[in-house]
Amino acid sequence: MTGGQHFQVNLRGIVDLFSQHLYTSPRVFARELVQNATDAIAARRALTAADPGADGAVTAGAGEIRIEPLPDGGVRVSDDGIGLTESEVHTFLASVGSTTKRDELGFARQDFLGQFGIGLLSCFMVSDLIEVVSRSAKGGPAVRWVGRADGTYHTEVDDAARAAIGTTVTLRPRPDSAHWLAPEQLSELVHHYAHLLPVPITLATEDGPVALTDPAPAWAIERSDPNHRRQQLLDYAEELFGVRPMDLLDLRVPEAGLTGVGFILPSPSTAGQRGGHRVYLKRMLLTEDADRLLPEWAFFVRCVVDTSLLRPTASREALYEDDLLSAVRQSLGEQIQQWLRELSVHHPARLAEFLRVHHLGVKALARHDDEMLRLVDAWLPYETSRGPMPLRDFRQGASTIVYTETVDEFRGLATIASAAGAAIVNGGYAYDTEILQRLPRLDPSLRVRRLDPSELAATLEPLPEPQLAALAGFLDTARHVLAELGCVPQVRQFHPINVPALYVVSQAAREQDLRQRNQADADDLWSSIFAGFGEPETDDRPELVFNWRHPLIRRIATEPPGPTLRHAVEALYGQALLAGHHPLRAVDGAALNRSFLGLLERAFASD
Ligand SMILES: Nc1ncnc2c1ncn2[C@@H]1O[C@H](COP(=O)(O)OP(=O)(O)OP(=O)(O)O)[C@@H](O)[C@H]1O
C-alpha cells in the first residue's frame, strides 16, 4: 500500500452546507471578517509582548480595523494585525478547518475569537471571490491569495501590494447578494456584531471615517452616582428590549470571565418561557436570544452579558452546552436569589412590586422549588379570614393551616369562620392548593388540610334543647321542603348576625353531590349506570343552617305551617346558595322562582 492520499473538499458543497444548515443568515460573513481582523491584532500584540526587543517590524500597530466600500460594490476590510507569511497563506487560508487559533492540543486559545478554521469560508455565501493581501509581522514579502467559490485559488508574492504589516480582505459583489455588501447594510451588520469590541472599527465614508464601535459595555462604564448608573442602565435596557425593566442586578461569574446585568421584566411572562438573553463572547455579539443561560425558574430576568470562557457552537450563534455553562447557570441563579433576598431585607416595597407583577410565575415555580416557596411564604399576601397577609405571618404559632379550595367557598365561609374563631386561607387561586400542600417542607411540624365546611358548622353554637323543641313545627316544614332539594335543616346561633342561613356542604356531601349532578346531566344510558351507585346516605346531605341570632329567622320560625312558611324556607335556601356562590341546579332555580312569586303574591294580597 502506498502513503495516504489527501481528502478533496468540494467547496460548493461546504458553502451550501454553511448557508443552508449551519448559519441562519449569510450576514455572519461580516462578523467573521471583523473577528479575523481582531484576532490578528491580538496575535500581533502577543508577538510583540513575547519579543519586545525584536526589530521594528514586530512592534504592534495601533490596532484598528478599517472598512472601505469599493466603487464596484465590493468591500475591503483592512487590519494592522499579525498578517500571514506565504507559507501560512497556503496552510491556513486554503485548507478548510485549519487555524492558527488552537494550541498544540487542539484547544481554542483564550486570546482569540476564532477557533474552528472555517469562518473565512462564510464570505463565499455573499461573494464568489475572496482576495487576501497580507504582510506578516514575522517578516517576508507581501503575498496575495485569491480564492474562488468554485474551489480554486492561487497565491503570488507581490511585495508592492501592501507596505504595512497587516491584512486586507476584499470581497466582490455577486448579483444575488450585492445588498449584503452595500455600505449601509454592512456598517449596520458590523455595528450589530462588533460594537463592543475593544478594537476600534471605522467605516470610510465621503465625510471621513465613522466609528462603528462603542467605548465600553453599558454596565462597565464607571459612574460615581449609583442611582445615575441605575437610570443609565435602565435606559440602555429600554432601548434594547423596547420596555423599561422594573429593576436590575449586576451579574458576575469570574470562572467564566462573565460580567453583565440582569434586567427584571416589567410585565408578567409565562413561566417556562426562556431565552431572549443577549450574550457577547469576548465582546463580540454571539446571540440576542440565548435560552440556557439562566435556570428555568428565572423567567422574569433578561440578561445582557459578556463572557470570555463560555464556548460557542460552530455557527457561533448559540452557547455550547457544557459543564461550564451549567456552572454559570447555577451561579447566576444564586445571584438572582441573593438579589431577591436583599430586596426583601432592604427594599420591601420593590419586592412587593416585583411579586405583584410576577406572582403567577413565582407561584408556578414554588410548586417545585423550595427557594421560591420560601419567597411566596414570606412575602406574597394571601386572602385569609384574618385579612390579607403572607402565609408565614398567618401560620405563626399555628400547628395547622386550613384552607378552602375555591374562592367562592372562601367568600361564603370566611366571615363565619372568623366569627367562630377559626382561621382559614383562600386556596382558590392558581397554584395555591399545591403551594399550601408543600408548606410542610418549610416547617415539617405544620399540618395543612382542606376545610370541611361541616366541621365549621359543628362549631356553631347549638340552641338549648327546650328552645329547639319549641321549633318542632318550623323544623318539620323545613325538613319537608328541603328534602325535595336534597338538603336537611339545622338551627344554630352564630355570627355575623346578618347571615340568615348558611348552606353547608360537607366533604362527603360534596362528593355525593357531584355524583348526583353527573347523573342529572347524563343521558339515559349513563343515568341508569350512575343510578347503580345507590341511594344517597342521609348523613351526607348538605345542611341549611338557620341563624337563630337573625331577627327574621326568629319571626319566620314562629309562623304557623302553610304555604307562606314553605315559600320562606325555599327563599332562605335560595339566598344561602347565592350568598355562598354555590351553583344552582334546575330544581334550585325553580324553588327560588316559586318562593319569590309566592311571597310577592302574598305581600300584595295582604295589601
Ligand atoms: N485578517 C487576518 N489576518 C491574519 N490571519 C488571518 C486573517 N483572516 C484569516 N486569517 C488566517 O486564516 C485562518 C482561517 O480563518 P478562518 O476565519 O477560516 O478560521 P478561524 O478564524 O481560525 O476560526 P473560526 O472558524 O472559528 O472563525 C485563521 O486561523 C488565520 O490564521
From TrEMBL:
Record keyword Amino-acid biosynthesis present: no
Keyword Cytoplasm: no
Protein residues bound to ATP: E32, N36, D79, T167
An example Gene Ontology molecular-function term: ATP hydrolysis activity
InterPro entries for this protein: HATPase_C_sf, Hsp90_fam, Hsp90_N, Ribosomal_Su5_D2-typ_SF
Keywords per UniProt: ATP-binding, Chaperone, Nucleotide-binding
Pfam families found in the cross-reference section: HATPase_c_3, HSP90
Gene3D superfamilies hit by this protein: 3.30.230.80, Histidine kinase-like ATPase, C-terminal domain
Entries under SUPFAM superfamilies matching the protein: ATPase domain of HSP90 chaperone/DNA topoisomerase II/histidine kinase, Ribosomal protein S5 domain 2-like
Classification via NCBIfam families: PRK14083.1
Family per similarity comment: Belongs to the heat shock protein 90 family.
Protein name in UniProt: HSP90 family protein
Organism the protein comes from: Natronosporangium hydrolyticum
